[in-house]
Structure formats: structure tokens, C-alpha cells
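From: lab user (bench 3)
To: helpdesk
Subject: output format question, protein + alpha-D-glucopyranose

Hello, I'm new to running complex predictions and I'm not sure whether the block I got back is the full result or only part of it. Here's what I submitted:
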Amino acid sequence: MKCTKILIILLACGTSLYAQKNKKAAKIKPRNEFVTELMAKMTVDEKIAQLVQFTADGTTTGPKSGDNFIEQIKKGNVGSILNATGVEYTRKLQELNMANSRLKIPLLFGYDVIHGYRTVFPINLGESASWDPALAELSSKVAAAEAAASGIHWTFAPMVDIARDPRWGRVSEGSGEDTYLGIQLAIARVKGFQGADLSAVNTILACTKHFAAYGAAEAGRDYNTVDMSERVLRETYLPPFKATVDAGVRTFMTSFNEISGVPATGSKFLLRDILKGEWKFDGFVVTDYTAINELIPHGFAKDSIHAGELSLKAGVDMDMVGGIYLKSLKKLLAEGKVTEAQINDACRRILEAKYDLGLFEDPYRYNDVKREKQEIYKKEYLDAALTVANKSMVLLKNSNNVLPLKKEQRVAFVGPLVSDEWNIIGSWAATGDRNGYAVSVEEGVKKIISDKSKISFTKGIEIVDQRRDMMKAALDAASTADVIVAVMGEFENMTGEAASRTVIDLPGIQKEFLAELKKLGKPVVLVLMNGRPLTLSWENGNMDAILEAWFPGTMGGDAIAQTLYGINNPSGKLPITFPRTLGQVPIYYNHKNTGRPYLGSKDPEQKYKSRYIDSDNSPLYPFGYGLSYTTFEYSNLKISSKELTANGTVKVTVDVANTGNFDGEEIVQLYIQDEVGSVTRPVRELKGFKKTALKKGEKKTVEFDIKPDDLRFYNIDMQFVAEPGDFKVFVGGSSDAGLTTEFMLVK
Ligand code: GLC
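Helpdesk reply: Thanks, we reran it on our side. This is the complete output you should expect:
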């Protein structure tokens, strides 16, 4: 009997080995050969179908489209589907497609996996506060592994829009206001999603969006007009996009907005001249949701046929949900308004992506039920989410070291988000669970404090609702505590898409509740869950400590609790400026000096300067700012030479000491000012940063290299060059760092 069993096992192994060998033998031809042969067999209708994407039922991420996607798949009219998730559902749709595809061309499944698929990481603005590309790559890698295990081939991420206006709800999805930080994180996220091998079953296509300058919408109102010089476009907004092309990103998404009169989705300048021309991008371009249709209300296309013509000519390869390519391209081709070469180019780019994913070899390779069960919520993924959440925490204020809390203290936890498991994972949370799986602050605290008599949890108020009937219970609980912790912020849907606000205070009566808590005469710690900078001047003046937690994701409650009790020493730095008042917006650190720079209260000229009569010019919390439970001292700033030659390098070194009582990490930042240029230059720009771990009492020397390439900008003739002249260097733990030295760039 035993012998038979062994034989069966050996046989099974042999069979599977043979199958694999045989499958290996079935490997298809090299990509170019395969795609060329396939396209030679395709009809024009079949080519156009590849340029068509519809949305599956259920979640829509924009205005509902009328087309019945199932019917369209049956007719062989679809190349890609978005918003379908899960191995079973995507397999079913793929089977329906393959049964109706004459040439067996598989569907491509896309989905918004922005900061996690099921294990949800902090929103990207929060993750960006870690200033840690390795963590951004890790979170994207985990997101890809879970999404790919659930039948997803393609994510619409990273979002790399530079944003300087906190009224805009989509600041939550990006890396904040700075181009240099944005570049590092954009590259990391593309690497995380796509990995080294797209044919691996735990990697997916990335999609750099929204091309371009979507974050510069006037008045911070989503989808609004963008108008800027080509210099600002190329110097501030485009570099993160270009960096992802150099990092090998395979798809781009056009933005909804116009730029200086031309909608991005119809912009030949953006798509063919810059992206596919100058940058030699060889992937494919999908529009944002119905963005081709929107060329009509933009006043750029007279009807949908015209919109289709303009988009294909501009360089759009795939029509997301609009249904216009399907209805217009064959007619436009017959009328000679578009060419077969344009259709072929778009089709080829899409087929090449499907080939590289391995979908022609096996359309169901991402549909493994067992692997889906194994991958979702893997402990190592949840651990990664906790690590990223901890590193995204930014300590904004900590008077008298009221934080970290001590275990023996009686702490009253209050506020609308104190037990929240819904908003904590933020917007764009893909298939993240909002009904109990995420760790709330209450749950996180209870894991640390075993003596339940030391802690209490009472909401007191809602986020927006003005009801006050619960406030007394919370005030009563707080009145017997040593310390009060108020967990407050925004609803998750008050940021993300179509969520611009004209007031960016804490919503509702949260500030009023804080004032009541303050009257109790105990230390009050404010913990914030929000997706944008808020105006916190009153809070900064009245709270004893403020911790910016953003929307910290599935493990957010653990991260907040571990930070409050000192298990995690916060090390995050703001990736975006927090203004004193909304009236200062747009406000960002790398601004121009103007001809009448205001030097603050010490300025001998107080009136005729670029200033406000009712506010200081400085922000409440500047870009790059963040405290620690310990303190760091900078000293001994040196530069290897006062002259930088055209092919040389100067080294900047600085000593950083941990002069406090906690081990910690400091994000040491290097800023450079080009003092005079053929066009005016920002007062300073981030050109390097290094996260440095320092045990208490430890001192390290941190080093930066500066090369001429770091100094390039678009000069008066729009040439991207470095101009000889004087440069200032600033080093410190924030963009208002004062430690300075200088050098000269010589011809
Ligand atoms: C939405 C968003 C975009 C998203 C797309 C697909 O409207 O603007 O970021 O990727 O549609 O959901």
C-alpha cells in the first residue's frame, strides 16, 4: 500500500513537472514578434476594442456611465475593465471575454490601489511624512501583492500631483508641495508596484497620474482651471512624472483639468511632444474617468466624435469609461480624420502591457483562489502597515513634555474619532474593511494599558453634527483624569476626489468642545485624523500637545497608541505647509523673495513690504517641520570647498546630536538658494534629506554631496541649466533651518 502511495505521489510530481516543462515549452514568441503577428490578424474593430475601458458595476469613481459593460464584453468591444475585484469575479469576466474574443485577447483589470488593497496603509500624504522612500516602496509592494492575488493587473497609482492648496481634497493622495521629495517617493512607489518583473504574479502595472498639474486647480476647487507658465510647469509639476518614466512606469493617466487653455486629455503638447516625444515614454496613456467626454463642457470639442478625434491625435491610448473611442474611431478613420497608424500605435502599447504581464500565456494567472486566501492580511503585511503608520506620525507640539503618556496616568480619551474604525483608513481605501477590522485608537490603547481603571473612552461630540447632548458625559469623564486626549479630525470623505473645502478648520463643534475640555485645567493632547493641512492656530495656542496622525490605515489605532505612550518616538516631518489662516493660501516654503521681502518684526520698514496687516507671513507649521520626544542639536556645518566647478562636487557635513532622553530619528534636510539667476529663484529648495537614527546622547556626522546638476533650472531662454554664481546652503530639521554656509558655482 505504502509503495503505491509513494508511486502516486511521484507520478503526480512527474506529471506536474512535465506540465510545467510542457507549459514552459508553450512559451510564446518574443513580444515584438508576437504583438506584430497578432495585430496583423486583428480587424480595425478588434484594435479599437483594445482602446476601450468600461467600469464594472458597484463602485464607480466618477459620474455613472450608461453602457452595460457585460454586453460590451460579449460583443468583444472591451480591452479593459476597472473596479472589478476578487479572483472569482475577475475570472468570470475574463472567461466571458475569452469566450467572445476571436483572437483570445485577455482583458486588463484596473483598480485604484492607492495606499493598500485590503491591508490599508496611511494615506499617501501621511506616508510621505515619513520621508522614507523605502517605506513607500514597501507599502506599494504589499499593495501589489494583495491586489495581484485578487485578480488585479493594474493600479491607478502613484498619484504624483504637487499640491500647494489645502482646500483641494486630493492633497491627501499625493506627496505634498515639494518636487524633490515628490520625485523620491514617486520612484519608490512605481518600483513597489511593478517590481523587477511584471510577469511575476505579485506585481502589477503602475499608472502615474494625473498628467498634469491637476493639483494647481484655481482656488483649490477640484477639476478647476489651471493656468501657469511653461517654466513653472516644467520646474515644479512635471519632474515627478518624468522621474516615473525613467523608473519604468508602464502607464500614465491624463488629468481632468486644462492647462493654460488646453485640457490635458486633448493636449498634444503634453502627451505627444513631452511624454512620448521628449521623455520617450513607451507605455500607454489612459484618460481619467470620462475625461474625453469632458472636452465638450471644457469648450474644447464640439461633440463626442470631435472629442474622440482630438484625444487620439493628442496621444490618448485608452478611453476610461467614456465610450467615445468605441463609438467614434471607426467613423473618424473612414473620414480620414484619424489614421490607422494612430490606432495601431495605441493598440500596440496596450497589447505589449498585457504581454509583459504574462496574460497571453495564461489569462487566469492572477486568479488563484488559494493564493488570494494566503496573501490577504498576511501578518507581515499588517506589520508593515503598522511600521509605516508609526513613521508617518508628526508631532506638532509638545509643551512641558506632556507626551509621551505614562502608564500610571489616568487618561480620558474623548472625541468623535476615539473609537473610529471607519474613517481611520482614509479615502481611496480600495477593498479596505471599514466595519471592524481596522484597529481603533480605543483598541490600540487597551492593548497597552491593562488596568482599565486608568483609561476611559467617550466621544462627546460628532465630527460635523452639532449635537451637544453627549458632551457632558465626556466632560465628566475628563474631569477625573490626569490627562485628556482628544481624537478629532475630518470624515474620510472630506478629502480625496471631489472634496474641496472653503474652510479648513476642524469641522463642526470640535474646537468648541476642546475649549470646554481646556476649562477643566488639565493637559489636553489633540490627536488629528485628517487628509489635508488644517488651520490650527487656536489649537496651537490652547492645546498642550498636538499629534498629526493623518488617516493612518488598518493598524492606525496601534500606531497612535504606541506613539502616545512612547513605544514609537514620532519622527515624521510635514510634506506640506500648515497655514496660520486660509487667507495665506497658497503658501509654500520654496516661494520667491519679491522686490519687497518682509523681514518680520525686525524689519525697519513695516508698511511698504510684501506682508499682511492682519497676519504674520510665516506659516503655522512649515514644510519639513516635526518634533520628537527627544531633541536634536545641529552644529559644525562645513563645506569641502567654497567653489564648485562645472564637473565637481562639494561635500557638506553637519554634526547632529541627540541631546534628549529618547532614542529617535531625525530627518536631516539640505536646502539650497540660488541667490541670483537670469530668472528669479526660490528663497530655498530641498535638495537632499537623510533620515538619521540617533540613540540618546549619540552624535553623528551627516554628509551631503552637491553637484552642478542639482542646481539646474529653466533659465530665461528655457534651457535647463545651472548658472554660475553664489549659492547659500541651509541644513536642519525643517525648511526654516537657519544653519547656513555658502559656495560659488564657477564656470
Ligand atoms: C477617478 C479619479 C482617478 C481614478 C479614476 C479611476 O475619477 O480621478 O484618480 O484613478 O477615476 O477610478
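A quick orientation on your result: Residues 394-570 form a domain with the Rossmann fold fold (CATH 3.40.50.1700). Let us know if anything else is unclear.
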